[in-house]
Specification:
By secondary structure, the protein is α+β, with helices and mostly antiparallel strands. The longest helix is centred in the C-terminal third of the chain and has 12 residues, at 106-117. It has helices at 8-14, 36-43, 106-117, 152-160; strands spanning 18-19, 31-32, 51-55, 68-78, 81-90, 93-100, 122-123, 127-130, 135-138, 143-147. The chain is 22% helix and 33% strand. The termini are far apart.
């Protein structure tokens, strides 16, 4: 019997799934392009109060051809606190993650974003964005956004438009 070891990076590459780059802020369960089933498996034991997979109809992600679902994780640890975290999956590919935070967390989180990613690419009444790193702070409701490369054009347009 011959054993074959495959690194996670090679396996995900072969499956067309992109591992989120090594980043101290981005949730470690993010695998851009992962299926809903793969995200559910990765979340096992990481949502203090469980998670639920629900359909989003109509879809809001661009270019969704068949369906969009969202996995809502209650109690995911982000920056030292349990947070409501939404994993948005279009056509069975993880494309976007929203982490709900408190307004009073803004200074700490924006400082962490700037220390990690540098100067913001966009600043408006609604967002402080770091498009090169596919991350943003949203003012209302207060949340942190991470998104996949396939959303670059759509997010650039959204983050640049007056809110």
């Amino acid at each position: 019997m011959k054993l074959v070891f495959v690194t996670t990076a090679i396996l995900f590459s072969a499956l067309g799934v992109a591992k989120a780059e090594s980043d101290p802020l981005i949730p470690d369960v993010i695998e851009w392009g992962a299926s809903a089933a793969e995200i559910e498996k990765a979340l096992d034991g990481k949502c203090a109060n469980g998670f639920v997979n629900r359909p989003i109809d109509p879809p809001f992600l661009p270019d969704v051809k068949t369906h969009q679902v969202q996995i809502d994780c209650d109690g995911y640890d982000f920056m030292g606190a349990p947070r409501w975290t939404e994993f948005v999956i279009g056509d069975d590919r993880l494309q976007m993650v929203w982490v709900m935070v408190e307004a009073e967390d803004k200074d700490k989180i924006v400082q962490a974003l700037e220390e990690t990613y540098g100067e913001p690419s966009h600043t408006s009444e609604m967002f402080i964005a770091f498009t090169e790193h596919r991350a943003a702070w949203r003012e209302e409701p207060p949340e942190v956004l991470f998104y996949a490369e396939e959303l670059d054009a759509a997010m650039q347009s959204w983050l640049s438009s007056p809110q």
